[in-house]
Design goal:
Number of domains: 2
Oligomer: single chain
Number of strands: 10
Number of helices: 3
Radius of gyration: 31 Å
Shape: rod-shaped
Helix content: 10-25%
Distance between the termini: 118 Å
Order of helices and strands: HEHEEEEEEEHEE
Structural class: alpha+beta
Length: 242
């Protein structure tokens, strides 16, 4: 009886030792397998992302995940800290790795139709001749400077021009077709008509744009995200040569 008890205890101990050894072996095998995969961190889209979403807003749509190095897509980002100031060039879908090529400078985002209106903004449209829209080269998604020229109400011989807004987002533009005449190599055909240019501004700024179109002349310049802020100093006819 005593021998049977000892034999049973010995069998139980051996079973426990065997189980521990098996668990350790499997655990070590998993670690060896993961090590051989050389895992890396990548930015993965968690929720649908609209085109034109800024990097600052993008953090709520994505997550950092660890994937095998062999599964990392070419150009996939490992973090967002070096992409400040950029926006998504296209809509992104859940599950895809965020590629650096999907982020661009806002000024480079050119779309044939329109771009989303930023939160807190509204759209206002003005009708401008070709020379006031950089020869008709402005597109939706561009950033522009808005200058206004007005005549002195007390002296019709004196007019002044001033930069009113910097980095205004163009959300849409409707242009007349370009001239059908043949252009020389390295040049573009001349636009044949005016353009409806739609801008994103807050309500107060929109009112200023509307009033400027009514009582003065608006002229747009093409800017980029890196264009420095300019002093809003008016230039008058009496000060052109000063």
């Amino acid at each position: 009886m005593k021998m049977r008890l000892l034999g049973g205890i010995a069998a139980l101990v051996l079973a426990v030792i065997g189980t521990v050894l098996l668990v350790n072996y499997v655990s070590n095998a998993d670690r060896r397998a993961q090590s051989s995969l050389d895992p890396v961190d990548v930015v993965v889209v968690e929720k649908p992302v609209p085109a034109g979403t800024s990097v600052q807003e993008l953090s709520s749509y994505v997550q950092i995940r660890s994937v095998p190095s062999t599964a990392k897509a070419d150009g996939a980002l490992t973090a967002l800290d070096k992409t400040s100031g950029q926006v998504t060039s296209v809509a992104l879908e859940p599950g895809e790795q965020l590629l650096g090529s999907r982020l661009i400078n806002p000024a480079e985002r050119i779309m044939p139709g329109a771009v989303p209106v930023p939160d807190g903004m509204q759209e206002v449209t003005v009708l401008l001749p070709p020379e006031s829209v950089v020869g008709g080269t402005i597109r939706a998604g561009d950033l522009v400077g808005l200058f206004v020229t007005q005549t002195d109400p007390n002296n019709a011989q004196v007019a002044s021009t001033q930069l009113v807004f910097d980095k205004v987002l163009v959300t849409a533009i409707q242009q007349a077709p370009a001239s059908t005449g043949t252009a020389q190599e390295g040049t573009s055909a001349v636009p044949s008509g005016a353009s409806f240019v739609t801008l994103a501004r807050n309500s107060t700024d929109a009112a200023k744009v509307i009033l400027s179109a009514r009582v003065g002349n608006i002229w747009l310049t093409k800017q980029s995200a890196t264009t420095p802020e300019s002093p809003k100093t008016p230039v008058s006819t009496s000060g052109i040569f000063q």
